[in-house]
Design goal:
The chain is mostly helical. It has helices at 4-15, 26-38, 43-80, 104-136; strands at residues 85-88, 93-96. The chain has a two-stranded antiparallel ribbon. InterPro entries: MamF_MmsF.
């Protein structure tokens, strides 16, 4: 049975990844600081620290892949439609010379990548909360679809 301090530290390691919403790269900095401070003192904290970091690194990789799919598609479609002529009439705003014909398939792929990114961030939030609850209960937890970068 893990000590209460080990459970709290492990739960806090998972929760520290949520600092990304306040501090850039906080989802990497704070778990690394906590994990590196306690990894030699407790196997339980070591396990949860590795899991939190591996999950964040996996999400980074998935995000980069989705960005490499979506960004070039949107830029290409935009550049194919230059020059764009915008006209302001009395109560209307009309964009002329912008033609999506022939690009719907590409735009569907780009939009799918954007939706998958949003879904990834939504699921991340709840998995971090779930992992911290498991850690605070003294259970070992492994995030799904995580690549074991740190073993």
């Amino acid at each position: 049975m893990e000590k209460s301090s080990e459970k709290n530290t492990s739960a806090f390691t998972h929760l520290s990844t949520l600092s990304q919403y306040i501090i850039p790269f906080g989802n990497y900095i704070f778990p690394i600081l906590i994990w590196s401070s306690y990894k030699d003192k407790s196997e339980f904290i070591d396990h949860h620290g590795k899991q939190a970091l591996n999950f964040q690194l996996s999400l980074l990789l998935y995000t980069l892949i989705l960005a490499l799919i979506a960004v070039p598609i949107f830029v290409t479609v935009f550049l194919q439609n230059l020059p764009i002529e915008a006209v302001f009439n009395d109560d209307d705003f009309v964009i002329r010379n912008f033609n999506l014909e022939g690009n719907i398939g590409l735009l569907s792929i780009g939009a799918t990548a954007v939706v998958l990114f949003g879904l990834l961030k939504f699921v991340e939030f709840f998995l971090v909360i779930y992992a911290s609850i498991k850690a605070s209960n003294g259970e070992l937890y492994k995030y799904p679809l995580t690549i074991p970068f740190i073993k």
